[in-house]
Amino acid sequence: MHRTFALAGLFMAASISANLSSADEALMTANVASRLGLVEAWQRTIPTPVGAASLADQKIFVHSESPHVYIEIVAGAAPAATATVPAATDDAEPSPGAEAKPVAGKPKSADTAKVLMRIAVGTPNARGVSIDQKEAERLASNEIRRMKRRGIQATMRTTEVQRVVLYSLADDGTLEARDAETGRPIWIAQVGTQGLHFGEIGVSEKYVTVVNGANLIQIDASNGTIIYQDRTGNAPQFGVINAGDFAMIATVGGGIEGYPLSDPTIDPFLEIVAGQAMAPPTTSPTSSRTAWSTDRGFVYVMELIGKPSTLFRLNTNGLVSGRIAAASGDRFFFGSDTGQAYALRATRSGDVMWVVPFGEPFYDQPLVIGEQVMMLSTYGRLFSMNIDNGDLSWDKPVTNVDQMLGGFGNQLFVRTMGGSLSVIDVKTGKTTGTFANVRPGHLLPNTQTDRLYLVGESGVVQCLRPIDSELPRFIVAPDRKPTEELAAETETKDPAEKSPFDPGSTDPFGTTADPFGAGGGADPFGAGGGADPFGGSGADPFGGGSAMDDPFGN
What we know:
Blueprint: H1 2-18, H2 30-35, E1 38-45, E2 55-75, E3 83-84, E4 115-120, H3 133-149, E5 154-170, E6 174-179, E7 185-190, E8 202-203, E9 207-212, E10 215-220, E11 226-231, E12 241-243, E13 246-250, E14 255-260, E15 269-272, E16 282-283, E17 290-293, E18 298-303, E19 309-315, E20 325-327, E21 331-335, E22 340-345, E23 351-357, E24 367-369, E25 372-376, E26 382-386, E27 401-408, E28 411-416, E29 421-425, E30 431-435, E31 452-455, E32 460-466, H4 483-491, E33 501-503
Parallel strand pairs: 3-5
Antiparallel strand pairs: 1-32, 2-4, 2-5, 5-6, 6-7, 8-9, 9-10, 10-11, 12-13, 13-14, 14-15, 16-17, 17-18, 18-19, 19-33, 20-21, 21-22, 22-23, 24-25, 25-26, 27-28, 28-29, 29-30, 31-32
Protein backbone atom coordinates (compact mmCIF):
# COMPACT_ATOMS: atom_id res chain seq x y z
CA MET A 1 0.00 0.00 0.00
CA HIS A 2 2.72 2.45 1.00
CA ARG A 3 4.66 1.52 -2.17
CA THR A 4 1.60 2.29 -4.31
CA PHE A 5 1.12 5.72 -2.69
CA ALA A 6 4.82 6.47 -3.14
CA LEU A 7 4.70 5.68 -6.84
CA ALA A 8 1.50 7.71 -7.23
CA GLY A 9 3.24 10.63 -5.57
CA LEU A 10 6.14 10.37 -7.99
CA PHE A 11 3.73 10.42 -10.94
CA MET A 12 1.95 13.48 -9.51
CA ALA A 13 5.25 15.30 -8.98
CA ALA A 14 6.32 14.50 -12.53
CA SER A 15 3.00 15.76 -13.92
CA ILE A 16 3.16 19.02 -11.95
CA SER A 17 6.77 19.73 -12.90
CA ALA A 18 5.95 18.99 -16.53
CA ASN A 19 3.78 22.12 -16.67
CA LEU A 20 6.31 24.44 -15.03
CA SER A 21 8.39 26.82 -17.07
CA SER A 22 12.10 26.06 -17.00
CA ALA A 23 13.47 29.59 -17.16
CA ASP A 24 16.73 28.47 -15.61
CA GLU A 25 17.23 25.78 -18.25
CA ALA A 26 19.58 26.58 -21.13
CA LEU A 27 17.57 24.51 -23.60
CA MET A 28 16.36 25.48 -27.07
CA THR A 29 13.95 28.37 -27.46
CA ALA A 30 11.15 28.42 -30.02
CA ASN A 31 13.02 31.06 -32.04
CA VAL A 32 16.21 29.00 -32.32
CA ALA A 33 14.23 25.87 -33.10
CA SER A 34 12.38 27.66 -35.90
CA ARG A 35 15.68 28.80 -37.45
CA LEU A 36 16.79 25.16 -37.55
CA GLY A 37 13.51 23.90 -38.99
CA LEU A 38 12.55 22.28 -35.68
CA VAL A 39 9.64 22.48 -33.27
CA GLU A 40 9.38 21.39 -29.65
CA ALA A 41 7.46 18.11 -29.34
CA TRP A 42 7.46 18.04 -25.54
CA GLN A 43 9.34 19.09 -22.41
CA ARG A 44 9.14 17.16 -19.15
CA THR A 45 11.09 16.72 -15.91
CA ILE A 46 12.53 13.29 -15.11
CA PRO A 47 11.99 12.31 -11.44
CA THR A 48 15.45 12.34 -9.86
CA PRO A 49 16.71 13.40 -6.41
CA VAL A 50 18.90 16.31 -7.59
CA GLY A 51 18.36 16.75 -11.31
CA ALA A 52 20.60 15.50 -14.10
CA ALA A 53 23.47 14.86 -11.69
CA SER A 54 21.41 11.99 -10.24
CA LEU A 55 20.85 10.24 -13.57
CA ALA A 56 22.62 6.88 -13.62
CA ASP A 57 21.64 6.20 -17.25
CA GLN A 58 19.20 7.15 -19.98
CA LYS A 59 18.48 5.09 -23.06
CA ILE A 60 16.24 5.46 -26.11
CA PHE A 61 14.91 2.18 -27.47
CA VAL A 62 12.75 1.42 -30.51
CA HIS A 63 10.21 -1.37 -29.85
CA SER A 64 9.35 -2.81 -33.25
CA GLU A 65 7.30 -5.78 -31.99
CA SER A 66 4.66 -3.69 -30.21
CA PRO A 67 4.06 -0.63 -32.41
CA HIS A 68 1.75 2.31 -31.87
CA VAL A 69 -1.46 2.07 -33.92
CA TYR A 70 -3.12 5.20 -35.29
CA ILE A 71 -6.43 5.65 -37.10
CA GLU A 72 -5.85 8.48 -39.54
CA ILE A 73 -8.29 10.55 -41.53
CA VAL A 74 -6.66 11.63 -44.79
CA ALA A 75 -7.87 13.99 -47.48
CA GLY A 76 -8.90 12.54 -50.82
CA ALA A 77 -9.99 9.14 -52.14
CA ALA A 78 -9.50 5.86 -50.32
CA PRO A 79 -5.92 4.53 -50.38
CA ALA A 80 -5.10 1.16 -51.90
CA ALA A 81 -3.37 -0.03 -48.72
CA THR A 82 -4.65 0.12 -45.16
CA ALA A 83 -1.38 0.31 -43.28
CA THR A 84 1.60 2.60 -43.55
CA VAL A 85 4.79 3.34 -41.64
CA PRO A 86 6.88 6.47 -42.16
CA ALA A 87 9.97 5.84 -44.25
CA ALA A 88 13.45 6.48 -42.93
CA THR A 89 15.30 9.72 -43.56
CA ASP A 90 16.39 10.67 -47.05
CA ASP A 91 19.92 9.34 -46.60
CA ALA A 92 18.92 6.11 -44.90
CA GLU A 93 17.09 2.90 -45.56
CA PRO A 94 14.12 1.70 -43.49
CA SER A 95 15.01 -0.56 -40.61
CA PRO A 96 13.63 -4.10 -40.35
CA GLY A 97 10.12 -3.73 -38.99
CA ALA A 98 9.87 -0.19 -40.36
CA GLU A 99 8.92 -1.19 -43.87
CA ALA A 100 6.24 1.10 -45.27
CA LYS A 101 3.42 -0.41 -47.25
CA PRO A 102 2.47 1.47 -50.45
CA VAL A 103 -0.35 3.98 -50.39
CA ALA A 104 -2.65 4.45 -53.39
CA GLY A 105 -0.37 2.22 -55.46
CA LYS A 106 2.61 4.52 -54.94
CA PRO A 107 5.98 3.61 -53.40
CA LYS A 108 6.38 4.32 -49.71
CA SER A 109 8.50 7.44 -50.29
CA ALA A 110 5.69 8.97 -52.35
CA ASP A 111 3.11 8.95 -49.53
CA THR A 112 2.17 12.62 -49.50
CA ALA A 113 -1.43 12.22 -48.31
CA LYS A 114 -2.58 15.09 -46.10
CA VAL A 115 -3.54 13.83 -42.64
CA LEU A 116 -6.55 15.77 -41.34
CA MET A 117 -6.91 13.94 -38.04
CA ARG A 118 -5.05 11.23 -36.13
CA ILE A 119 -6.45 9.10 -33.30
CA ALA A 120 -3.99 7.07 -31.23
CA VAL A 121 -5.23 3.64 -30.21
CA GLY A 122 -4.67 2.97 -26.50
CA THR A 123 -4.85 6.55 -25.29
CA PRO A 124 -7.51 7.48 -22.69
CA ASN A 125 -10.66 9.33 -23.71
CA ALA A 126 -12.35 12.15 -21.76
CA ARG A 127 -13.64 9.62 -19.19
CA GLY A 128 -10.19 8.10 -18.72
CA VAL A 129 -11.09 4.89 -20.58
CA SER A 130 -8.52 3.54 -23.03
CA ILE A 131 -9.60 3.78 -26.67
CA ASP A 132 -9.35 0.47 -28.51
CA GLN A 133 -9.04 0.20 -32.29
CA LYS A 134 -12.74 -0.45 -32.85
CA GLU A 135 -13.68 2.66 -30.89
CA ALA A 136 -11.05 4.72 -32.71
CA GLU A 137 -12.48 3.62 -36.07
CA ARG A 138 -15.98 4.54 -34.91
CA LEU A 139 -14.82 8.02 -33.88
CA ALA A 140 -13.03 8.45 -37.21
CA SER A 141 -16.12 7.37 -39.17
CA ASN A 142 -18.25 9.94 -37.35
CA GLU A 143 -15.69 12.65 -38.10
CA ILE A 144 -15.58 11.67 -41.80
CA ARG A 145 -19.39 12.01 -42.02
CA ARG A 146 -19.19 15.48 -40.47
CA MET A 147 -16.47 16.48 -42.96
CA LYS A 148 -18.57 15.17 -45.86
CA ARG A 149 -21.45 17.44 -44.84
CA ARG A 150 -19.01 20.36 -45.08
CA GLY A 151 -17.92 19.26 -48.56
CA ILE A 152 -14.60 17.71 -47.51
CA GLN A 153 -13.77 14.33 -49.03
CA ALA A 154 -11.80 12.16 -46.62
CA THR A 155 -11.04 8.51 -45.95
CA MET A 156 -9.74 6.41 -43.10
CA ARG A 157 -6.53 4.39 -42.87
CA THR A 158 -4.57 2.54 -40.20
CA THR A 159 -0.95 3.45 -39.51
CA GLU A 160 1.48 1.43 -37.41
CA VAL A 161 4.62 3.12 -36.09
CA GLN A 162 7.40 1.55 -34.07
CA ARG A 163 7.15 2.55 -30.43
CA VAL A 164 10.01 4.73 -29.16
CA VAL A 165 10.57 4.74 -25.39
CA LEU A 166 12.91 6.78 -23.21
CA TYR A 167 14.14 4.82 -20.18
CA SER A 168 15.68 6.79 -17.30
CA LEU A 169 17.36 5.42 -14.18
CA ALA A 170 18.22 7.62 -11.20
CA ASP A 171 20.85 6.81 -8.59
CA ASP A 172 18.13 6.28 -5.96
CA GLY A 173 16.71 3.35 -7.97
CA THR A 174 13.85 5.24 -9.66
CA LEU A 175 13.34 3.62 -13.08
CA GLU A 176 10.98 5.31 -15.51
CA ALA A 177 9.65 4.47 -18.97
CA ARG A 178 8.34 7.43 -20.96
CA ASP A 179 6.90 7.71 -24.46
CA ALA A 180 9.74 9.39 -26.34
CA GLU A 181 7.32 10.93 -28.86
CA THR A 182 4.81 12.53 -26.48
CA GLY A 183 6.67 12.69 -23.16
CA ARG A 184 3.81 10.79 -21.49
CA PRO A 185 4.94 8.52 -18.59
CA ILE A 186 4.24 4.83 -19.25
CA TRP A 187 5.30 3.38 -15.90
CA ILE A 188 7.61 4.06 -13.00
CA ALA A 189 9.23 1.57 -10.62
CA GLN A 190 11.59 1.50 -7.67
CA VAL A 191 14.41 -1.02 -8.06
CA GLY A 192 17.59 -2.01 -6.25
CA THR A 193 19.14 -0.61 -3.11
CA GLN A 194 19.99 3.05 -2.78
CA GLY A 195 23.67 3.44 -1.95
CA LEU A 196 24.81 0.62 -4.23
CA HIS A 197 26.14 1.64 -7.62
CA PHE A 198 23.71 1.59 -10.55
CA GLY A 199 25.31 0.84 -13.91
CA GLU A 200 24.13 1.20 -17.48
CA ILE A 201 20.69 -0.32 -18.12
CA GLY A 202 20.03 -2.98 -20.75
CA VAL A 203 16.87 -2.82 -22.88
CA SER A 204 15.33 -5.29 -25.33
CA GLU A 205 11.85 -5.79 -26.77
CA LYS A 206 10.44 -7.45 -23.63
CA TYR A 207 12.90 -6.77 -20.83
CA VAL A 208 14.76 -4.01 -19.01
CA THR A 209 17.78 -5.14 -16.99
CA VAL A 210 19.39 -3.17 -14.17
CA VAL A 211 22.69 -3.80 -12.38
CA ASN A 212 22.78 -2.59 -8.76
CA GLY A 213 26.07 -3.42 -7.10
CA ALA A 214 26.48 -7.13 -7.86
CA ASN A 215 22.71 -7.64 -8.24
CA LEU A 216 21.08 -8.26 -11.61
CA ILE A 217 17.42 -7.18 -11.77
CA GLN A 218 15.14 -8.08 -14.68
CA ILE A 219 12.02 -5.95 -15.29
CA ASP A 220 9.05 -6.38 -17.61
CA ALA A 221 9.43 -3.63 -20.24
CA SER A 222 5.66 -3.34 -20.72
CA ASN A 223 4.67 -2.50 -17.13
CA GLY A 224 7.77 -2.13 -14.92
CA THR A 225 7.13 -5.28 -12.86
CA ILE A 226 10.24 -6.95 -11.43
CA ILE A 227 10.49 -10.47 -12.85
CA TYR A 228 13.48 -11.81 -10.95
CA GLN A 229 16.75 -10.85 -9.26
CA ASP A 230 20.07 -12.68 -9.27
CA ARG A 231 23.62 -12.22 -8.04
CA THR A 232 26.37 -11.82 -10.62
CA GLY A 233 29.38 -14.09 -10.40
CA ASN A 234 31.81 -11.18 -10.44
CA ALA A 235 31.57 -7.42 -10.01
CA PRO A 236 30.10 -5.69 -13.10
CA GLN A 237 32.38 -3.08 -14.61
CA PHE A 238 29.94 -0.78 -16.47
CA GLY A 239 26.43 -2.16 -16.26
CA VAL A 240 24.50 -4.51 -18.54
CA ILE A 241 23.31 -4.78 -22.13
CA ASN A 242 20.48 -6.94 -23.45
CA ALA A 243 21.45 -8.75 -26.65
CA GLY A 244 19.90 -11.81 -28.24
CA ASP A 245 18.92 -14.28 -25.53
CA PHE A 246 21.11 -12.87 -22.77
CA ALA A 247 21.79 -9.97 -20.44
CA MET A 248 25.54 -9.50 -20.82
CA ILE A 249 27.96 -7.84 -18.41
CA ALA A 250 31.70 -7.16 -18.60
CA THR A 251 33.27 -7.88 -15.22
CA VAL A 252 36.05 -6.11 -13.36
CA GLY A 253 38.26 -9.19 -13.54
CA GLY A 254 38.28 -9.28 -17.34
CA GLY A 255 35.53 -11.80 -17.98
CA ILE A 256 32.16 -11.76 -19.73
CA GLU A 257 29.03 -13.08 -18.03
CA GLY A 258 25.64 -13.70 -19.62
CA TYR A 259 22.30 -14.31 -17.91
CA PRO A 260 19.31 -15.72 -19.84
CA LEU A 261 16.58 -13.18 -20.51
CA SER A 262 13.60 -15.47 -21.09
CA ASP A 263 14.44 -18.55 -18.96
CA PRO A 264 16.14 -17.85 -15.62
CA THR A 265 16.52 -21.60 -14.94
CA ILE A 266 19.23 -21.83 -17.62
CA ASP A 267 22.71 -21.56 -16.18
CA PRO A 268 24.55 -18.32 -16.96
CA PHE A 269 27.67 -18.46 -19.11
CA LEU A 270 31.16 -17.21 -18.36
CA GLU A 271 33.74 -16.30 -21.01
CA ILE A 272 37.36 -15.50 -20.19
CA VAL A 273 39.00 -13.04 -22.59
CA ALA A 274 42.38 -11.35 -22.88
CA GLY A 275 42.18 -8.16 -20.88
CA GLN A 276 39.59 -6.01 -19.19
CA ALA A 277 36.89 -4.22 -21.17
CA MET A 278 37.72 -0.59 -21.97
CA ALA A 279 34.09 0.53 -22.51
CA PRO A 280 30.59 -0.99 -22.43
CA PRO A 281 29.92 -3.50 -25.24
CA THR A 282 27.87 -2.50 -28.30
CA THR A 283 25.26 -4.67 -30.03
CA SER A 284 24.53 -4.64 -33.75
CA PRO A 285 21.13 -3.09 -34.55
CA THR A 286 20.30 -5.99 -36.86
CA SER A 287 21.50 -9.03 -34.86
CA SER A 288 22.73 -10.17 -31.45
CA ARG A 289 26.40 -9.83 -32.39
CA THR A 290 28.16 -7.72 -29.80
CA ALA A 291 31.58 -6.05 -29.85
CA TRP A 292 33.87 -4.61 -27.19
CA SER A 293 37.54 -3.74 -26.74
CA THR A 294 40.03 -4.75 -24.03
CA ASP A 295 43.14 -3.23 -22.47
CA ARG A 296 45.25 -5.94 -24.11
CA GLY A 297 44.68 -4.38 -27.56
CA PHE A 298 41.90 -6.67 -28.83
CA VAL A 299 38.40 -6.09 -30.16
CA TYR A 300 36.15 -9.09 -29.54
CA VAL A 301 32.88 -10.00 -31.26
CA MET A 302 30.45 -12.44 -29.64
CA GLU A 303 27.22 -14.08 -30.85
CA LEU A 304 24.49 -14.11 -28.16
CA ILE A 305 21.74 -16.16 -29.81
CA GLY A 306 21.35 -19.75 -28.61
CA LYS A 307 24.64 -20.94 -27.19
CA PRO A 308 26.90 -17.87 -26.79
CA SER A 309 30.20 -18.02 -28.64
CA THR A 310 33.09 -15.69 -29.37
CA LEU A 311 33.32 -15.35 -33.15
CA PHE A 312 36.73 -13.71 -33.43
CA ARG A 313 39.04 -11.07 -32.02
CA LEU A 314 41.01 -8.36 -33.86
CA ASN A 315 44.43 -7.26 -32.67
CA THR A 316 44.31 -3.48 -33.10
CA ASN A 317 47.09 -0.95 -33.52
CA GLY A 318 46.78 0.77 -30.15
CA LEU A 319 44.06 0.58 -27.52
CA VAL A 320 40.42 1.20 -28.39
CA SER A 321 39.35 3.21 -25.34
CA GLY A 322 36.00 4.54 -26.55
CA ARG A 323 32.78 2.66 -27.03
CA ILE A 324 32.37 0.97 -30.41
CA ALA A 325 29.65 2.25 -32.78
CA ALA A 326 27.42 -0.12 -34.75
CA ALA A 327 25.40 0.06 -37.97
CA SER A 328 23.09 -2.28 -39.85
CA GLY A 329 24.62 -5.34 -41.46
CA ASP A 330 26.68 -6.17 -38.34
CA ARG A 331 29.16 -3.35 -39.06
CA PHE A 332 31.26 -1.88 -36.26
CA PHE A 333 33.34 1.31 -36.22
CA PHE A 334 35.98 2.46 -33.72
CA GLY A 335 39.22 4.40 -33.32
CA SER A 336 42.38 3.72 -31.34
CA ASP A 337 44.66 5.87 -29.20
CA THR A 338 47.33 5.65 -31.92
CA GLY A 339 45.04 7.38 -34.42
CA GLN A 340 43.80 4.37 -36.40
CA ALA A 341 40.17 4.39 -37.55
CA TYR A 342 38.65 0.95 -38.16
CA ALA A 343 35.56 -0.49 -39.81
CA LEU A 344 34.82 -4.20 -39.64
CA ARG A 345 31.95 -6.46 -40.49
CA ALA A 346 31.10 -9.18 -37.98
CA THR A 347 30.94 -12.23 -40.21
CA ARG A 348 31.82 -15.62 -38.73
CA SER A 349 35.51 -15.06 -39.27
CA GLY A 350 35.53 -11.24 -39.39
CA ASP A 351 36.12 -8.87 -42.29
CA VAL A 352 38.08 -5.61 -42.05
CA MET A 353 36.26 -3.17 -44.34
CA TRP A 354 38.88 -0.43 -44.04
CA VAL A 355 41.55 1.06 -41.80
CA VAL A 356 42.43 4.76 -42.04
CA PRO A 357 45.47 6.22 -40.20
CA PHE A 358 45.24 9.63 -38.52
CA GLY A 359 47.80 11.47 -36.47
CA GLU A 360 45.36 12.09 -33.62
CA PRO A 361 44.12 9.71 -30.88
CA PHE A 362 40.43 8.74 -30.66
CA TYR A 363 38.75 8.18 -27.30
CA ASP A 364 35.05 8.81 -28.09
CA GLN A 365 32.40 6.62 -29.68
CA PRO A 366 31.95 7.32 -33.41
CA LEU A 367 28.58 8.37 -34.83
CA VAL A 368 27.06 6.91 -38.00
CA ILE A 369 24.80 9.22 -40.03
CA GLY A 370 23.58 7.89 -43.35
CA GLU A 371 26.60 7.09 -45.49
CA GLN A 372 29.09 8.83 -43.19
CA VAL A 373 31.01 7.82 -40.07
CA MET A 374 31.93 10.69 -37.75
CA MET A 375 35.01 10.32 -35.51
CA LEU A 376 36.04 12.87 -32.90
CA SER A 377 39.69 13.10 -31.89
CA THR A 378 40.90 14.04 -28.43
CA TYR A 379 41.93 17.44 -29.87
CA GLY A 380 38.29 18.31 -30.63
CA ARG A 381 38.66 17.76 -34.38
CA LEU A 382 35.76 15.97 -36.05
CA PHE A 383 36.40 13.84 -39.14
CA SER A 384 33.83 12.41 -41.55
CA MET A 385 34.53 9.23 -43.54
CA ASN A 386 32.59 7.32 -46.17
CA ILE A 387 30.96 4.32 -44.52
CA ASP A 388 31.95 1.94 -47.34
CA ASN A 389 35.65 2.74 -47.90
CA GLY A 390 36.80 5.20 -45.23
CA ASP A 391 37.51 8.05 -47.69
CA LEU A 392 37.31 11.50 -46.11
CA SER A 393 34.00 13.25 -46.85
CA TRP A 394 35.00 16.80 -45.91
CA ASP A 395 37.78 19.05 -47.13
CA LYS A 396 38.94 19.61 -43.56
CA PRO A 397 37.81 18.50 -40.08
CA VAL A 398 35.47 20.55 -37.91
CA THR A 399 37.25 21.96 -34.86
CA ASN A 400 36.24 22.86 -31.29
CA VAL A 401 33.87 19.88 -30.88
CA ASP A 402 33.38 18.36 -27.43
CA GLN A 403 30.59 15.80 -28.00
CA MET A 404 28.22 14.63 -30.73
CA LEU A 405 24.51 14.60 -29.85
CA GLY A 406 23.02 13.08 -33.01
CA GLY A 407 21.94 14.02 -36.48
CA PHE A 408 19.24 13.61 -39.10
CA GLY A 409 18.51 14.99 -42.53
CA ASN A 410 21.50 17.17 -43.34
CA GLN A 411 22.17 18.39 -39.79
CA LEU A 412 24.66 17.15 -37.20
CA PHE A 413 24.18 18.49 -33.66
CA VAL A 414 27.26 18.80 -31.43
CA ARG A 415 28.29 20.42 -28.17
CA THR A 416 31.30 22.69 -28.47
CA MET A 417 34.19 22.74 -26.04
CA GLY A 418 32.65 25.87 -24.60
CA GLY A 419 29.39 24.04 -23.89
CA SER A 420 27.25 25.65 -26.62
CA LEU A 421 25.12 23.85 -29.20
CA SER A 422 26.52 23.91 -32.73
CA VAL A 423 24.97 22.65 -35.97
CA ILE A 424 27.10 21.23 -38.79
CA ASP A 425 26.14 20.56 -42.40
CA VAL A 426 26.62 16.79 -42.79
CA LYS A 427 27.50 16.97 -46.49
CA THR A 428 30.04 19.80 -46.40
CA GLY A 429 31.31 19.90 -42.82
CA LYS A 430 30.52 23.62 -42.60
CA THR A 431 29.17 25.02 -39.32
CA THR A 432 25.74 26.48 -40.06
CA GLY A 433 25.13 27.91 -36.62
CA THR A 434 26.38 28.10 -33.03
CA PHE A 435 23.96 28.98 -30.26
CA ALA A 436 25.68 30.15 -27.08
CA ASN A 437 22.42 30.25 -25.10
CA VAL A 438 21.63 26.59 -25.79
CA ARG A 439 23.80 24.69 -23.33
CA PRO A 440 22.65 21.11 -22.65
CA GLY A 441 23.97 19.96 -19.30
CA HIS A 442 23.54 16.22 -19.74
CA LEU A 443 24.01 14.32 -23.00
CA LEU A 444 21.34 12.04 -24.45
CA PRO A 445 22.62 11.08 -27.91
CA ASN A 446 20.03 9.70 -30.33
CA THR A 447 21.02 7.87 -33.52
CA GLN A 448 17.77 5.99 -34.16
CA THR A 449 15.15 8.61 -35.03
CA ASP A 450 14.88 12.16 -36.35
CA ARG A 451 14.46 13.58 -32.85
CA LEU A 452 16.86 15.76 -30.86
CA TYR A 453 16.85 15.35 -27.07
CA LEU A 454 18.37 17.97 -24.77
CA VAL A 455 18.68 17.48 -21.01
CA GLY A 456 19.01 20.40 -18.61
CA GLU A 457 20.81 20.45 -15.26
CA SER A 458 17.53 20.18 -13.33
CA GLY A 459 16.58 16.97 -15.18
CA VAL A 460 14.25 18.60 -17.71
CA VAL A 461 14.21 16.71 -21.04
CA GLN A 462 13.32 18.60 -24.21
CA CYS A 463 12.38 16.74 -27.38
CA LEU A 464 12.56 18.57 -30.73
CA ARG A 465 11.48 17.28 -34.13
CA PRO A 466 11.53 18.53 -37.72
CA ILE A 467 8.50 20.71 -38.45
CA ASP A 468 7.28 18.36 -41.20
CA SER A 469 7.80 15.12 -39.21
CA GLU A 470 4.86 14.57 -36.87
CA LEU A 471 5.59 10.85 -36.72
CA PRO A 472 9.17 9.64 -36.23
CA ARG A 473 11.42 8.59 -39.07
CA PHE A 474 13.79 5.73 -38.29
CA ILE A 475 17.43 6.04 -39.30
CA VAL A 476 19.37 3.06 -40.60
CA ALA A 477 22.65 3.46 -42.48
CA PRO A 478 22.52 2.00 -46.03
CA ASP A 479 24.35 -1.29 -46.51
CA ARG A 480 25.48 -2.07 -50.05
CA LYS A 481 27.14 -5.36 -49.12
CA PRO A 482 24.88 -7.47 -46.93
CA THR A 483 26.29 -9.88 -44.37
CA GLU A 484 24.97 -12.94 -46.24
CA GLU A 485 26.89 -11.96 -49.37
CA LEU A 486 30.08 -11.43 -47.43
CA ALA A 487 29.69 -14.72 -45.57
CA ALA A 488 29.59 -16.55 -48.91
CA GLU A 489 32.80 -14.80 -49.96
CA THR A 490 34.45 -15.78 -46.69
CA GLU A 491 33.71 -19.45 -47.33
CA THR A 492 35.58 -19.35 -50.64
CA LYS A 493 38.71 -17.68 -49.31
CA ASP A 494 42.01 -19.49 -49.46
CA PRO A 495 42.50 -21.09 -46.03
CA ALA A 496 46.22 -20.33 -46.25
CA GLU A 497 45.52 -16.62 -46.60
CA LYS A 498 46.68 -14.73 -43.53
CA SER A 499 43.90 -13.16 -41.48
CA PRO A 500 44.22 -10.29 -38.96
CA PHE A 501 41.67 -12.05 -36.78
CA ASP A 502 42.11 -14.75 -34.19
CA PRO A 503 39.38 -17.39 -34.12
CA GLY A 504 36.88 -17.10 -31.33
CA SER A 505 38.10 -20.16 -29.45
CA THR A 506 41.66 -18.93 -29.04
CA ASP A 507 43.40 -19.04 -25.72
CA PRO A 508 43.08 -15.65 -23.97
CA PHE A 509 46.86 -15.58 -23.53
CA GLY A 510 47.32 -15.41 -27.29
CA THR A 511 48.49 -18.88 -28.33
CA THR A 512 47.01 -22.22 -29.19
CA ALA A 513 50.27 -23.91 -30.08
CA ASP A 514 52.44 -25.81 -27.63
CA PRO A 515 54.10 -23.25 -25.34
CA PHE A 516 57.51 -24.85 -25.95
CA GLY A 517 57.36 -24.16 -29.68
CA ALA A 518 56.59 -27.56 -31.14
CA GLY A 519 53.96 -27.55 -33.86
CA GLY A 520 51.13 -29.87 -34.71
CA GLY A 521 51.20 -31.81 -31.47
CA ALA A 522 54.75 -33.04 -32.10
CA ASP A 523 57.17 -33.97 -29.32
CA PRO A 524 58.08 -30.79 -27.41
CA PHE A 525 61.80 -31.57 -27.83
CA GLY A 526 61.58 -31.32 -31.62
CA ALA A 527 61.60 -34.94 -32.74
CA GLY A 528 59.19 -35.65 -35.54
CA GLY A 529 57.04 -38.59 -36.51
CA GLY A 530 57.39 -40.43 -33.22
CA ALA A 531 61.14 -41.04 -33.75
CA ASP A 532 63.49 -41.75 -30.87
CA PRO A 533 64.32 -38.43 -29.24
CA PHE A 534 68.05 -39.28 -29.36
CA GLY A 535 68.03 -39.53 -33.15
CA GLY A 536 68.76 -43.29 -33.52
CA SER A 537 66.00 -44.09 -36.00
CA GLY A 538 65.30 -47.36 -34.24
CA ALA A 539 68.96 -48.52 -34.24
CA ASP A 540 70.94 -49.36 -31.12
CA PRO A 541 71.61 -46.07 -29.40
CA PHE A 542 75.26 -47.06 -28.82
CA GLY A 543 75.97 -47.48 -32.53
CA GLY A 544 76.11 -51.32 -32.71
CA GLY A 545 75.19 -53.19 -35.89
CA SER A 546 73.07 -56.32 -35.80
CA ALA A 547 71.29 -57.02 -32.63
CA MET A 548 73.25 -60.32 -32.32
CA ASP A 549 76.69 -58.75 -32.66
CA ASP A 550 78.93 -58.66 -29.66
CA PRO A 551 78.94 -55.09 -28.42
CA PHE A 552 82.67 -55.32 -27.65
CA GLY A 553 83.57 -56.17 -31.23
CA ASN A 554 84.61 -59.83 -30.64
